[in-house]
């Protein structure tokens, strides 16, 4: 098994129960209110459009809050993730909400092999996913393999320009990390996850990669998709730059000063020809 994959999967297995117990993922609100959507999917709605009746696969679905939200919009949804612990939490959530969702354990690059012969109307990838993938080209190949002709990819993720900024500087925007995809990962060491949790992580090392916007688009074009939407946003659903951001009523964080300086996230929609 690839060393980076092994490290990252161990981290996500450890984080999964902490995230399920955290108020940030709002599990209990989702269970109590059958019309509630995750903040992420609610933000996506204007560009996502009507998905009622569509066959949808959610790649890197984690504990399934966004997956459940897609199902509540009327889609038949399959969630895929490489973390067994994350899928266990996702299945519990779906059962508590009495919602039929199929979950499959697989690395993203092997998703089409884990679902042989299956194709979908929509491939959905939620925010904070692509940085865990070493290469963007095999991801684009997988997306194309999973889509029906005329099927659609919906991607919202952190902007690669933001990912190049060092968040430790709270008084300025300073580029210190790669914008373009690199062979070697950026290595992080932290015993804390990104939600409030009392427990410290034993698996504290993780590996990430950035992928430039042009690299993502070019990879999709090379596998037979054509771009229909590209929107850069001045917001992101976590405090990506501590000390420099304010949280809006929509749950999104924006730069406190001169927000037009930096794109924080982007939405990309592409269709398989």
From TrEMBL:
It holds the Pfam family Methyltransf_12. Its EC number is 2.1.-.-. GO terms for biological process: methylation. Keywords: Methyltransferase, Transferase. SUPFAM superfamilies: S-adenosyl-L-methionine-dependent methyltransferases. It comes from the Bacteria. Residues 58-153 form the Methyltransferase type domain. The keyword Methyltransferase applies. InterPro entries: Methyltransf_12, SAM-dependent_MTases_sf. One of its GO terms (molecular function) is methyltransferase activity. It is an enzyme of class 2 (transferase). This is Class I SAM-dependent methyltransferase. It comes from Pseudomonas juntendi.
